[in-house]
């Protein structure tokens, strides 16, 4: 009942005239679980001790226990108010503040206090649910050791050792079992969250390269275009198509082709900023989304960085010699009519094919006259020069 009332009072904190709002003002920075504990303790103090004092005609010993517990609870609450950053000390002290008075009352041997055994179990489970299973273990140890001492020292209980053993089991083993179940449920929930995260990742990423897939790219690009239009910022798309990929597949097999794609993906990820997105949209086609760039030179810098890394990576593996890339770009500046995500990618794709046609024309001219472009023309340099010609601007 106290727990249910505390949950209800905690829910009231969203009301302008609620106890929860008052507590939130008095306990800034305090965890919600500790605010709930303060409410539970207040309700337990009012109802629990009213019952104890009523049935035993205000016996002085209970007043002494109450006189010791009440200042301890006030000190615990004030500590939460002024030292919210020390929860560990407060939680361990709270275990003793809540349980030792119950044990002191039980030691009197009155049959009216049998409900306190249930209260002690509830306190143990509550600590575990709020602060972690190890607090349930701590409470169970306090309960078990306290009742064992009472059984050995109080004559009224020495003759009822069987009943006391069952009571110790109630206030110790039951909370421990609840802690075990809590841990199991937490593990199952963690596994379920991991499985869900894995499924989300597999549905939005390419399994071979680990890059985003086309669907995820379109979703992110659509959001990026809307934000760029609202903030009047700029966004760019680089469409990259590999040259020579089919030859690697045909000559060395699909395993070599897969290794090539993974190497290209690594080169792309190393060439962009952490907030940019790299996606694989086809067999040997990749797209890079550059978010919030300032100058056109930044886009060309990314393209040149990728080409340099790709050139070095391909030269290190004899199987991949001759593999290059054609890059087309398309940009959008906020304030202009906003294209669709597919439309901006199509513009970059068209720019890439213009670059590829320039490259093929230059490659044909080089085949007819190898010395026309220099002693040892670099095909990557030819494609980089063509990329500037093939830009598509939104």
Short description:
This protein has 394 residues and is an alpha+beta fold. It has helices at 2-11, 19-26, 32-55, 60-82, 87-106, 115-131, 133-153, 155-158, 161-204, 214-231, 245-252, 254-271, 296-315, 341-368, 379-389; strands at 234-243, 277-280, 285-291, 324-333, 392-393.
Description:
The protein has 394 residues and is an alpha+beta fold. The chain folds into two domains: 2-199, no CATH class; 214-393, Reverse transcriptase/Diguanylate cyclase domain (Alpha-Beta Plaits). Helix content is 70%, strand content 8%. It has helices at residues 2-11, 19-26, 32-55, 60-82, 87-106, 115-131, 133-153, 155-158, 161-204, 214-231, 245-252, 254-271, 296-315, 341-368, 379-389; strands at residues 234-243, 277-280, 285-291, 324-333, 392-393. It has a five-stranded mixed sheet, with helices on both faces. Helix 5 (87-106) runs antiparallel to helix 6, helix 11 packs antiparallel against helix 12 (254-271) and helix 12 (254-271) packs antiparallel against helix 13 (296-315). The two termini are 65 Å apart.
Keywords:
alpha+beta; 394 residues; Alpha-Beta Plaits; 8% strand; five-stranded mixed beta sheet
Beginning-to-end CA distance, first to last residue: 65 Å
Radius of gyration (CA) equals 36 Å
Helix content: 55-70%
N to C succession of SSEs: HHHHHHHHHHEHHEEHEHHE
- Biggest β-sheet strands, sense, barrel: 5 strands, mixed
Domain count, please report it: 2
| Low-pLDDT regions | 12-17, 370-394
Q: What do the pLDDT scores average to?
A: 79
Write the layout of secondary structure elements.
Layout (H helix, E strand, L loop, with lengths): L1 H10 L7 H8 L5 H24 L4 H23 L4 H20 L8 H17 L1 H21 L1 H4 L2 H44 L9 H18 L2 E10 L1 H8 L1 H18 L5 E4 L4 E7 L4 H20 L8 E10 L7 H28 L10 H11 L2 E2 L1
Parallel strand pairs: 4-5
Antiparallel strand pairs: 1-3, 1-4, 2-3
Helix pairs in contact: 1-3, 3-4, 4-5, 5-6, 5-7, 6-7, 6-9, 7-9, 11-12, 12-13, 14-15
